[in-house]
Amino acid sequence: MENIYLLMLVALVVLAIADLVVGVSNDAVNFLNSAIGSKAISFKTIMIVASLGIFIGAVFSSGMMEVARKGIFMPGQFYFDEIMIIFMAVMITDILLLDFFNTLGMPTSTTVSIVFELLGAAVVMALIKVSASDTETLANLSNYINTEKATEIISGIFLSVVIAFTIGAIVQWLSRLVFSFEYEKKIKNFGALFGGVCLTAIGYFIFFKGLKGTPYYDSFKDVLSSQVLLVVGVSFVFWTLFSWLFMKIFKRSILIIVIAIGTFGLALAFSGNDLVNFIGVPMAAYHSYEAWAASGQAASTFSMEVLRTEVPAEPILLFISGGIMVLTLWFSKKARSVAETEIGLSRQGHGTEKFDPNMLSRAVVAGSTRLADGLRNILPVGTKRRISKSFAKPDEILVGDKSEEQPAFDMIRASINLTVAGVLISIATSYKLPLSTTYVTFMVAMGTSLADKAWGRESAVYRVAGVLKVIGGWFFTAFSAFSAAGILTYIIFLGKGPAIAILLLVAIGLLVRNYISHKNKAIEKADTSGLKKSESKTVQGIIAESADNISNVVSRSNKIFSDVLTGLSKQEKKKLKKSKKGVDKLEAEIEDLRDHIFFFIKSLDETSVRGSSFYIAILGHLTDIAQSLEYISKKSYKHVNNNHKPLRYNQITDLKEIDDTLSDLLSKIDKIFTEKKFEEISAIVASKEEILNNISEKIEKQVSRTRTEESSPKNTTLYFNILLETKELMNAIMNLMEEYNSSYKKV
Fold it and tell me: Residue 90: left (phi > 0), alpha (psi -120 to 50), or beta?
């Protein structure tokens, strides 16, 4: 029986390594986003600075795994075999939950997940013990759970969300009021003071939070706690002088140093303190196993009171953990996905919105707009003018046609993000208040975004929806962590070794599936074969660039139309569903081009404005093509999915004839635009009436069949819908050809 616990310990070690990987992938967002979003320093430099912070923080971590050992439950109330079940359930749940959020690209809290997993697993194990006892009832549940500590941790974590958002918004608003968006001018005069304040706060944060628990901390902790004003004052003078000298000597903005040191500090604190979330449980399991093996007692009778003592982590394990975390930071694609979510929500300029608006986000934006208008009306005119001047954005932020390539926000906001997050975490640590570094850094970033008016009328409803979705995900984290860990605890309790083996196999399968899913999405995102935004500033260039998009749409339309008719004739639901997705992707790309019209028109030369009319007309025809394909594919899929009768043989034959004609036409058009033989477009346009007449004949034939031999209303309706929409598709294609031919001849 002893072997099973040794195997469980080995499994927990492997799970700890996997948890380090998924944990860093999620929490990298905490310290990378400000530097990446502002593009103050190169990406390689950011990664080097963050890697140093992570590794140093991990190696010098206190290793006091108190949350896993005694922060949530009373270890003395459980026996060794029960504790091992709890730890195994927690680790399996933690890996799957964090990987799920990473795959979605959503930041969540590793602290919240581990706390609620421990709570859920301990509660279920306590319920099992209570139900098996003749003397205990549900009222005795409090004997097993450290309710006071658990309540303190949970309330502190969620309270930090509101505080971080509010403080971030206030500090950013005041900073922008002073520096405005054209801060380069004022930073020359006030940069030394601003740098002194930020670097003092970040430096204090590094020493107080980031290096807490190191071998050297005891020598200066009394000074930090009892001589706060003296330490802060001396630091401020030093950093202010440093900032002034740096700007004078190197002629560079001190904000670069603030962002670099801030990134290092948050990375240091993350690995030094959140390491417990990844290896705390396996470490506690290892110490439990050591104590049990030395006791000689049975696993079902050995009390885990030993977990109440404080045992530091082994240095070699901290060294290995730091190495794994650094490697994950460099090679994890999911870490980039999570970072993109927060950067997208805080972007100052226009960009592709990741989230769709919902009823709640619309209500929040409408209410906030009315409140802002009301406050604005009571302010004096001079004050409003002063505020408006400070928050006026440069033209490149407003109308940049390559917003995705620009910094998401400026260095002032990046500095505030890092400074405020560091200060809040430092204050919470000094008062021994638990919080989630993910929640604090994310909500500070959202607060500064709001204050900076990054959520304007054009984007607010999307950004608010995204923030609400992320926050909703946090509550889902807590609920699912508690529930899943509890369920797995019960399953392992019933099934013992076989249950653990099955759960581990299921976990591996889910991790592999999520990896493949995320990889496929990344490949799809990196696919350069889609429609391209026009970057030309001349009429000739616009017409030439549009040829590539027309060729692309025509080629894809040809395949989609043929696949739909093939899937319909053979009743292949999978093929129809795939075609439907292909249409959705095509529509999304065309919609993206339409969203780009504003920037396209702004970028045109004065002599080339007439090119905008051509570009808009072309997009209109491409939209008509996509809408016709969407209608045909949707109706066909619905027919097969509802298990209606298949089309009759003569209907399939007629559709096949139309498909051959259309396929031949679209292939010719594709060739014309690929090889730039635009003089042949006239011949294509001349065939319009012949093709439309052919479709009309098919409609007349079906009318005759309906009166004499057809018996299926669904088939008849579908067939007419396809023929009529195919006529609309043909009209859209021919209108596109006529528009292009006319414009090409004018150039």
Answer: alpha
